[in-house]
Design goal:
With 311 residues, the chain is of the alpha/beta class. Helix content is 30%, strand content 24%. The strands form three sheets. The chain has a six-stranded mixed β-sheet, sandwiched between helices. Strands 2-3-4-5-6 form a five-stranded antiparallel β-sheet.
């Protein structure tokens, strides 16, 4: 469980329309290079623009950090802005978000590959409590991991668990375990909680924030955009796996899309020297989702969704 905290988008100084501002890229020009038509404003009442190709649709909004790829929400590092008659997007968002999306449809080569599944929490670290039946997050994540293991093995993955029973495992030890297993992919399983409220709902997927980009999930921790972690070498792969997994979870959950988010405080991801993603499979603090998560058949659906995404 990780509680999201709103992050105020960075204040950007106005740029004269005749100035060449290198960190910003014309969305139209980028789209044309990759087979998209011209960006179309979806409504005269709001600065929301869509780029469409034969296979995909990208939607962005001037002044907002939320964007959509084929209806799936993800977060930008910087809010796009209109300068003159051009919609500009930050070059880091182009490199770390848009470019990886272009190759999202490529198959994952995984035969014989090693994946480490990390059941969140454990031992004295119980995690969140289910509002429906009082079960602890640590039990539910372990059950999810156990259900997922044979499904991935059937698909050709070599699967290892950071814990297979109710023991506490330090974050650094989870990273070291993945190193010892020579893992190709690391996946951490969690369920969310709003910390007292009951209204928050939906699935959320997190990967490490690229260097130079502000996080959109901080949980009150400081967020130093100048820091570079080992896992930043896999920024593109992190995002591609996150998008695939998030779409699959949404299909299984049928709930609210809380989007693919970037975070820098997640110690279990930062030191990973492989693509790494953290999944939040719903809110244990929400009565409706808690009842759903408490059902073993639903946890099986979540496991099957993850396995499909990694097929």
């Amino acid at each position: 469980m990780f509680k999201p905290v709103s992050v105020v988008p960075p204040t950007l100084a106005a740029t004269p329309t005749n100035e060449v501002f290198a960190p910003w890229v014309s969305l139209n020009k980028w789209g044309r290079r990759h087979g998209f038509g011209a960006a179309k404003q979806l409504s005269t009442d709001s600065p929301i623009f869509a780029l469409s190709s034969a296979n995909s649709v990208l939607v962005v909004e001037a002044g907002a950090r939320s964007a959509c790829w084929d209806g799936l929400e993800f977060q930008l590092g910087f809010a796009p802005r209109v300068v003159g008659d051009e919609l500009l997007v930050h070059a880091l968002d182009v490199q770390k978000n848009f470019e990886p999306l272009l190759s999202l449809s490529e198959r994952i080569a995984h035969s014989g590959s090693v994946i480490v599944i990390d059941a969140g929490h454990g031992g004295s670290d119980a995690g969140a409590k289910c509002a429906f039946n009082g079960r602890c997050e640590k039990e539910l994540t372990l059950d999810w991991a156990r259900r997922l293991t044979p499904l991935l093995a059937q698909r050709g993955w070599r699967v290892f668990l950071t814990r297979s029973n109710d023991v506490e495992v330090a974050l650094a030890d989870r990273v070291a375990f993945a190193d010892r297993c020579r893992a190709d992919v690391f996946l951490s399983l969690h369920f969310n909680s709003s910390g007292g409220g009951r209204e928050q709902a939906g699935v959320e997927t997190c990967c490490l924030t690229p260097a130079g980009m502000p996080s959109n999930l901080t949980r009150g921790y400081s967020d130093d955009a100048t820091l570079v972690f080992p896992n930043n070498a896999f920024d593109a792969e992190n995002f591609q796996y996150a998008i695939r997994l998030h779409r699959a979870l949404l299909e299984a959950n049928g709930g609210l899309d809380r989007g693919v988010r970037r975070a820098r405080f997640l110690g279990v991801l930062r030191g990973q020297q492989r693509p790494a993603v953290l999944l939040e499979g719903g809110y244990l603090s929400n009565p409706k989702e808690a009842r759903q998560i408490a059902d073993p058949a639903h946890r099986q659906k979540l496991a099957e969704a993850v396995a499909r995404a990694l097929e």
